[in-house]
Amino acid sequence: MSTTGWHAPPAxxxxxxxxxxDAVAAASLERHVSRCADCRGGIAPALDIPGLDARGxxxxxxxxxxxxxxxxxxxxxxxxxxxxxxxxxxxxLSAAASLxxxxxxxxxxxxxxxxxxxxxxxQRIWPYLLVAPLIPVLGVAAAYGDADEPFEALAVxxxxxxxxxxxxxxxxxxxxxxxxxxxxxxxxxxxxxxALAWLGPALTMIPVLLALASFIGPRTAGAVVALVxxxxxxxATRGAEQTWPVAATQQAVYAGLAAVALAVIAxxxxxxxxxxxxx
Amino acid sequence: xxxxxxxxxxxxxxxxxxxxGVDLCLGPGVTGLLGPNGAGKTxxxxxxxxxxxxxxxxxxxxxxxxxxxxxxxxxxRRRLGxxxxxxxxxxxxxxxxxxxxxxxxxxxxxRRARHxxxxxxxxxxxxxxxATKRIxxxxxxxxxRVGLAQSLLGSPRLLVxxxxxxxxxxxQRATLRRTLGVVAQDATVLLSTHQxxxxxxxxxxxxxxxxxxxxxxxxxxxxxxxAAGRVWHSDHEVPDARVSWRTGTGRHRIVGGSPPxxxxxxxxxxxxxxxxxxxxxxxxxxx
Lengths: 279, 287
Hints:
A: 2 domains; elongated; B: alpha/beta; Rossmann fold; 3 domains; six-stranded mixed beta sheet; 14 strands; 33% helix; globular
């Protein structure tokens, strides 16, 4: 649609397609043509290419416009699309900071260093046990904001729903971080069950984080959970077995904690049913 | 048909009563919400936008009861557009990317239809040329128009705008008025603004909130009429005036009180009526 009512004369369009306009005039005309269907229609005759009509040019223009305007999604999201992730879901996930290449590559580097530390010298696996459960937890904390934050306000009032959006991003973070951490875990020295035992606290801390975040926001909740877990792991290095935080008895406690957190979320959902923003 | 029906709506934050017993029925057209800071305007708009729940009273939107459950709520939200007072924009998102993100939240799943709709709303607010630009590089007024664009997605039947004119220059405000004028032919538009001239130019109806209650609810013409015979121009200040100020001509505009000797009656405006209703506090913070 043209906003000025002016249309480029055929002679001007011919000079443009022949490349005879100076840079400023060409840029100005391009700006007009990009918004004026009438003048775009005048480009095809000016090009004088056999078989190219206005419809074909319009189709080409649509493709160009799609490529230019539609934003490029993060690499991880594009890879996920190749294995079947739907485009609308990909767009929603792409807004989460912790699903972007920078965050994810940082997480892999930290996990890598923790794994290397464990394989060197005196078999210290506590850095891995400290980091591995926290990566997905902090990823979830970074994946969404408080319901009162300006950007998040739109999700609250949209039909998609904030709770659904938060859970979608949580799932996205788990899928993108847990397999990498688990694979690195198999490189650890010592008992092989440790490679997966950290999943217990990780999968407990995520619902705990979500439940806490519904009261104090995800950033503060992430800090609280990270501090508590760090304290537990570091305390175990002084006197107890390094694997104490992921031992079987502790796993039962984690399961109980997860159940409590899920119950809190369920109660919140009931209390906030009128706006549907439990998280 | 009334798209907004509020009956005895109340809302408190801790000990602070933001809204108390608000009754309001709105049909298609533009309604302006005026009131000083803390009057409850944003709280009212957030309740109508389904962003927060009322503590008491009944809220019916677009013929649906908010207490009706998830299906009713989702149905309302499919036909609702909302521009919050403050809208955060991730800095690395482009204009097109941001509006498309909101379009997906509004369940525009088909790529072709979604992109067409995003271009339509960007065209409506005059941002089609800036579609690929990063939001962090836009001016305040342009960002506000991005916010307005997302609220117009899907041609909502109920449009809730919290201070849509903030940061807009006069030409942009005129464009906004034209846009909302078209939208309001079929939809109910509820907006708050601190520009009484916007309300006068845009709205058929005005609601004045003060202390969480409705002080006035009627047509703009009726509200202006409440100031008839109570506004003067004078060479001197008047001590008992409700509000007065020195104008650019050097004369004083006297609103309320008793007419000073030699004063000339002046044509009242919506702002005069508003100031008369709420007094000097409103002049200090007319939002």
